[in-house]
User: Which sequence fits this backbone?
């Protein structure tokens, strides 16, 4: 009887050992299984009217993927290793599609990236209207969408769960300009403002934001609307009102207004374009642009920062071009998205979303002039994004604000242009 009992217990022990061994083996196998590549959908207008800008954005995304997939001595998360370490070194695989600059095509391409390509997330799509259309599709499917350059404030006010934006929107750009006003000394105090904006969506974005900020700060608003066919009337009206500063939607429109103002012998105290609106160069920035300011998301003047200079050198070696325009935004957006996927340790949409919400990307690891990347928990807008102010001097744009990183001193008020007074 004792022999049978002993045999029974030995059998149980052997069975239990085999069972535990199998469980441990399966558990280890499960935790070690990671995809070799992580598919990221990349949507930009690589044909049509925005082809040049779209192709530049794609170059930036491809460069960022290279920084992640290969090893670089950079103080940027994921650059020092190869691939995503928390996913077994999985590499980023880009699935690039052309939105053709069409919202309808953006919807179709987003659907393709999700249903056919099985992209874990999508980044794009440059123009605000295309971004709005594509993100409607990702919202419906529950796929993370990261936008790196669209500026419409409306995009993060839709109550969407899956849409994230890293760059400053028009609201944050306007807030930056008002912060600049606050930091001016008493001799240059801005007490009255004229907003000259048309009926376009971006113009209304700026006008609405600036009206709110002016009211909050107690500044007088002299004018807040001007159509392109009213330039002569506007110049005469503002000459009489003489506001401390005039803001316009773009630097291009500010140049046009100044040309008209000169004909009326009127030289504004200061003018700010809330965005560029042109390919700025010594050829395109003539005498009428001299002294004008423009709010910008990035500037080559930032190349004095060691990390940005180093990344620029690598980018130039890879593409033959220097960083410019919105390309740094695209690079940053891709790095932030990859960092979130790595922290999620998964391609599960919910886990990626939670990781994005928990993002705390430090300023010293950025090639942008921001205080970091931290998404608002309700709107998913990067609340640490901001713009800089550039001033046209001798035909080129110089960084004049924030004052602590300025490369040139601010000239204020404007030196009258030829024909002004």
Assistant:
């Amino acid at each position: 009887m004792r022999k049978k009992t002993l045999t029974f217990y030995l059998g149980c022990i052997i069975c239990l050992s085999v069972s535990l061994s199998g469980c441990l083996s399966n558990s280890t196998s499960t935790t070690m299984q990671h995809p070799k590549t992580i598919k990221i959908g990349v949507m930009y207008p690589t044909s049509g009217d925005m082809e040049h800008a779209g192709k530049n954005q794609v170059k930036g995304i491809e460069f960022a993927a290279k920084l992640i997939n290969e090893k670089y001595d950079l103080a940027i998360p994921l650059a020092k290793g190869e691939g995503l370490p928390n996913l077994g070194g999985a590499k980023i695989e880009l699935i690039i599609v052309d939105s053709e600059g069409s919202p309808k095509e953006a919807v179709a391409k987003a659907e393709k990236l999700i249903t056919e390509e099985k992209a874990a997330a999508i980044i794009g799509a440059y123009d605000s209207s295309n971004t709005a259309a594509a993100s409607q599709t990702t919202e419906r499917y529950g796929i993370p969408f990261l936008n790196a350059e669209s500026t419409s404030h409306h995009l993060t006010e839709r109550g969407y769960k899956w849409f994230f934006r890293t760059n400053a929107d028009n609201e944050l750009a306007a807030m930056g300009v008002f912060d600049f006003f606050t930091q001016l000394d008493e001799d240059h105090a801005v007490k009255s403002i004229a907003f000259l904006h048309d009926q376009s969506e971006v113009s209304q974005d700026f006008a609405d934001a600036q009206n709110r900020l002016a009211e909050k700060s107690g500044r007088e608003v002299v004018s807040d609307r001007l159509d392109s066919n009213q330039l002569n009337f506007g110049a005469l009206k503002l000459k009489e009102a003489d506001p401390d500063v005039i803001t316009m939607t773009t630097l291009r429109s500010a140049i046009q207004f100044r040309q008209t103002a000169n004909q009326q012998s009127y030289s504004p105290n200061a003018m700010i374009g809330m965005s560029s609106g042109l390919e700025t160069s010594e050829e395109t920035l003539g005498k009428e642009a001299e002294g004008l300011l423009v709010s910008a998301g990035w500037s080559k003047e930032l190349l004095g920062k060691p990390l940005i200079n180093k990344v620029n050198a690598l980018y130039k070696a890879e593409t033959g071009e220097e960083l410019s325009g919105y390309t740094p935004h695209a690079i940053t957006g891709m790095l932030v998205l990859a960092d979130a996927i790595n922290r999620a340790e998964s391609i599960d949409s919910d886990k990626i979303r939670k990781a994005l919400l928990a993002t705390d990307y430090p300023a010293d690891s950025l090639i942008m002039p921001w205080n970091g990347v931290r998404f608002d928990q309700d709107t998913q807008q990067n609340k640490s994004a901001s713009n800089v102010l550039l001033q046209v001097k001798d035909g080129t744009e110089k960084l004049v604000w924030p004052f602590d990183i300025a490369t040139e001193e601010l000239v204020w008020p404007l030196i009258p242009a030829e024909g002004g007074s």
Remarks:
- The mean pLDDT is 89.
- The CA atoms of residues 40 and 156 lie 21 Å apart.
